[in-house]
Write a structure and sequence with these properties.
- By secondary structure, the chain is of the alpha/beta class.
- The chain folds into two domains: 140 residues, Rossmann fold (3-Layer(aba) Sandwich); 69 residues, no CATH class.
- The protein is 46% helix and 11% strand.
- It contains ten helices and five strands.
- Strands 1, 2, 3, 4 and 5 form a five-stranded parallel β-sheet that branches.
- Strand 1, helix 1 and strand 2 form a beta-alpha-beta unit.
Length: 223
Amino acid sequence: MIRVHVLVEGQTEETFVKSVLQPHFNQYEIYLFPRLLGKPRHKGGIGEYPRAQRDILTTLKEDVGAFCTTMFDYYGMPNSWPNREIAGQKPFAEKPVALEEGILADIAAGLGTGFNRARFIPYVQMHEFEALLFSDPKRLADGLELADDTAIQAIRGQFRTPEEINDSQKTAPSKRIIGLNAGYSKVLDGVRVSQRIGLDVMRAQCPHFNNWIEKLEALAGRG
């Protein structure tokens, strides 16, 4: 049995890990344990880096036989995050990678020379969870009970991959969805639609997300 603690920003990601990711990883005997960033009553959101740093370090110290990963959003990260300013100058595909490299280096430094860097796999997605839902416009439209997928297709067609969908706070993926269905619930509807779409489709459409899943799959047999 391989244990992987997954630090997430909010309930939506927590439920996604349990309901969509875990069923896939059962075949690898990899068990994911999502936990919200910050204190138990914290409502989510990325915030300043020291809080996340503390949670990551604590997780790795408390369970030395387990791995740790993250599911954080790049958009809205303050400059206190490692490599955040550098990432802002990079091409799109390199932005989250720069953050991940910076976070890994900082955590490894905090745990000293004896730390096995393979135990920590940071994942930073460019935008919020809902970007993944644009991987399948038809199923997203059905899940939102829209008459057809024309509006979803129009949004999707503006971007090379679903991971790129965002221009401002007003055009974040969830805001676009709410604009089409005001009753949209991130936790309930978001996860339900992601289950309809399926992990394979999201992986095929979202290369950085897929890369993260592949890294976790590679842990099989290392417990």
